[in-house]
Amino acid sequence: MKFTPAKPPLTGETLDTLTERLRERGEPAFRAKQILDWVYKKRARSWDDMTNLSKPLRAWLDETFELMPVSLVLGKQSTDVTDKLLLGLGDRSLIETVIIRAPQDGVGIEHSRKTICISTQVGCAMACAFCASGLAGFKRDLNAGEIVAQLLQVCYREDARTVRAREELASFDNIVVMGMGEPLANYDALMRALTILNAEWGLGFGARRITISTSGLVPKILQLADEKMGFRLAISLHGATDEVREKIMPVNKAYPLSKLIPAISAFSEKHGRMVTLEFILIEDVNDSIDQAGELRDIARDLHAHVNLIPYNTVEGLPWKRPSVRRQEDFADVLRAARVPVTLRREKGHDIDAACGQLRLKTEKDRELASA
Ligand SMILES: C[S@@+](CC[C@H](N)C(=O)[O-])C[C@H]1O[C@@H](n2cnc3c(N)ncnc32)[C@H](O)[C@@H]1O
Ligand code: SF4
Fold it and tell me: Can you tell me which residues bind S-adenosyl-L-methionine (predicted)?
């Protein structure tokens, strides 16, 4: 379903497109940069905050653009280091954005490293059997302005909380495109949003600190390899043979490992960077020592880093995480071959961190309330 907002979001405009809109209105070329400075550098929350613009121009901007296309519905802080923002869109759809803090000794929570996890779609059409985002199916793509606005909402929240945030333009260290949705299925909006986040007139956020995670859309991985901006790539593998992968990821039928692995290889050759293979460990599905051996061989050939993620249980789904012992045995097969591997300590379990769960719960509550 396509959503056409009554007014396009300002956060979806590039310097060029905004300059053109303003030029049509007879404004000088520098005006666009002035407005974008208000949005990204001075964090203006209303048109009236933009005090160096004339009143008629502010009125025109208000008629023409939505300044902020997403609103904070719920901000949940877990007892560990993960905050989750539930955001509402113009059509009342809900998306999730997560702030993951990695405390470092001696610097306190304020200066901990921060990774922001953003969404690219409402729901997901890929229908992976283990994932909460795909449970209610696909609703729609986010537009570029909605993707960018998630990061601005994080800035607003952090500016109010920490000195570091007020001092820095973007006080986070990494962006991971690992929230709800398949990012490469919404390719054009994602690229436009990342261009805005990266631009000096936007948030000035380095492309090499942005990781895009995909379930494995081969033609789009090849297209991404040709982009000038050098993003990092993570692949949701979750099965090290077609037989296992196909059971839990329908995308494997269209793009089996024989197509996916050469595409990953082409990407890392072009960018000269290590790709990450994400592998959720699900009990009795993909956690055997045989799978670990197959994964080791794939990772070694690709010179890839492996991220092992103990499965986060999802209400309504039968899957479980393996015991810690079994997780360690699996990781040991990779470690023994000197494959770089991280066995992730999951964060935010107590606030429904498995992507899409907070949204599903809130939508259920809404249905109950309206019934
Ligand atoms: C939600 S997806 C979004 C990005 C993209 N669609 C993808 O699949 O890579 C991000 C990561 O979360 C993982 N994931 C989904 N459900 C999970 C769960 N219940 N527990 C742990 N990880 C999960 C996915 O497999 C994927 O590696
Ligand atoms: S894991 Fe990624 S691709 Fe699969 S359903 Fe979830 S969000 Fe979509």
Answer: 181-182, 213, 236-238, 312
Number of other residues whose CB lies within 10 A of the CB of residue 343: 18
d(CA 118, CA 186): 13
Q: What is the pLDDT of residues 155-207, one digit of tens each?
A: 998 887 777 666 777 788 999 999 999 999 999 999 999 999 999 999 999 99
User: Do residues 315 and 356 lie in contact, with contact meaning Cβ atoms separated by under 8 Å?
Assistant: no
Structure ipTM over 0.90, yes or no: yes
CA atoms within 13 A on the CB side of 253: 7
CB-based contacts of 142, cutoff 8 Å, min separation 6 = 89, 95, 119, 120, 121, 122, 181, 186, 189
Q: Residues 6 or more apart from 55 whose CB is under 8 A from it? A: none
Q: Which residues are catalytic?
A: 96, 355
Q: How many Cα atoms within 13 Å fall on the side-chain side of residue 280?
A: 21
The binding site for S-adenosyl-L-methionine consists of: 181-182, 213, 236-238, 312
Ligand 1 centroid to 148 CA: how many Å?
Answer: 21
Residues 120 and 173 in one domain: yes
Nearest to 134 by CA among 223, 245, 251, 260: 251
177 and 54 in one domain? Answer: no
**Residues 147 and 296 occupy one common structural domain:** yes
